[in-house]
Design goal:
Elements (H helix, E strand, L loop, with lengths): L8 E5 L4 H12 L3 E6 L3 H12 L5 E5 L5 H15 L4 E4 L15 H22 L8 E5 L14 H21 L5 E7 L5 H4 L4 H10 L8 H12 L10 E4 L6
Parallel strand pairs: 1-2, 1-4, 2-3, 4-5, 5-6, 6-7
C-alpha cells in the first residue's frame, strides 16, 4: 500500500455519500486522517466513517451545513482541535438544483444555490487557510457541463454557481501559491451518484450512456483517484487547473 497521504489531515465536505464518500475513503486508504462532513444524513456519514476506519487511520464526523458560516467555523475548529492542522481541504458539498432556467429561478433559489455552492466553499477556505501549512492542498468541485456547448437552459442556475467556483479557483491559486498551497478544481462528467440519477428516466440514462465514448457513465471512485493525485506530493506543480474528469464526453 502506497500511503501517499500518510501524516496528512483531510476535510471532505459532503462526504456522507456519492463522490464525497469515495474521496474520503480514498484519502483514508492512502493514510490520511479524515474529517467526514455531512449536512443531514448522519447514518450515511457514520457509514463512511466506519468504512474509512478499516484503513487504520483516524476519522471524525462533523455535522454542518456549508452555507452556514457558524457551521463552517465549527467544522474547522473541530478539525484543528482534534488533529492540529488541515493539509487537504476537499470542498465537495453542493446543491445540484436542476430545472432552474431564467423563467423559473426565484431570488430565493438564487440565494440558496450560491450560498451552498459558492459562499460556502469560499468562506470555508477563508476559515481554514490559517491552519493550512505551506504545501497544503485545496480541491474544489465543479461540473463538466460548464464546457458543454449543448447545455440545457434548465441548468442555468447550477452552472452559474460552478462557473463562479472555477474562477475562484484560478484566482486563489495565485493568492495561495506563494505558500505552495495549490488550488485546483475537479470537474466531473456523468457519475453514478444518487444526485445524478435523481429525476432522470431510465430511457434518458441509457441515452446518455449510449452517446458516451466509453458506453457508460463514471464511478465515484474514478473521480476520487484524481482527488488523491491532487492531494498528494506528485501534484506540487499542478495549480489553478480545472480537471475535466468525464471519460471524454465533454472536451
Amino acid at each position: 500500500m502506497s500511503q501517499r497521504l500518510a501524516g496528512k489531515v483531510a476535510i471532505v465536505t459532503g462526504s456522507s455519500r456519492g463522490i464525497g464518500r469515495a474521496v474520503a475513503l480514498a484519502f483514508a486508504r492512502e493514510g490520511a486522517s479524515v474529517v467526514v462532513n455531512y449536512s443531514g444524513n448522519k447514518a450515511a456519514a457514520d457509514s463512511t466513517a466506519e468504512e474509512a476506519l478499516k484503513h487504520g487511520g483516524k476519522v471524525i464526523v462533523v455535522q454542518g451545513d456549508v452555507s452556514s458560516m457558524e457551521d463552517n467555523k465549527k467544522l474547522i475548529e473541530a478539525t484543528v482541535e482534534t488533529f492540529g492542522k488541515i493539509d487537504i481541504l476537499a470542498l465537495n458539498a453542493g446543491l445540484i438544483c436542476p430545472g432552474k432556467d431564467l423563467k423559473s429561478t426565484t431570488p430565493e433559489d438564487f440565494d440558496k444555490a450560491f450560498a451552498v455552492n459558492v459562499k460556502g466553499p469560499m468562506f470555508t477556505v477563508k476559515e481554514a487557510e490559517k491552519h493550512i501549512p505551506d504545501g497544503g492542498r485545496i480541491i474544489f468541485f465543479s461540473s463538466s457541463l460548464i464546457a458543454n456547448s449543448g447545455i440545457l437552459p434548465a441548468y442555468m442556475l447550477y452552472i452559474s454557481t460552478k462557473g463562479a467556483i472555477e474562477q475562484m479557483c484560478r484566482v486563489l491559486a495565485k493568492d495561495l501559491g506563494k505558500r505552495s498551497v495549490t488550488v485546483n478544481t475537479i470537474s466531473p462528467g456523468p457519475t453514478e451518484t444518487d444526485g445524478y440519477y435523481e429525476g432522470k428516466s431510465e430511457q434518458l440514462i441509457k441515452m446518455i450512456e449510449g452517446t458516451h465514448p466509453t458506453g457508460r457513465i463514471g464511478k465515484p471512485e474514478e473521480v476520487a483517484e484524481v482527488a488523491v493525485f491532487l492531494a498528494g506530493p506528485e501534484s506540487s506543480w499542478v495549480n489553478g487547473q480545472i480537471l475535466r474528469v468525464n471519460g471524454g464526453s465533454i472536451v
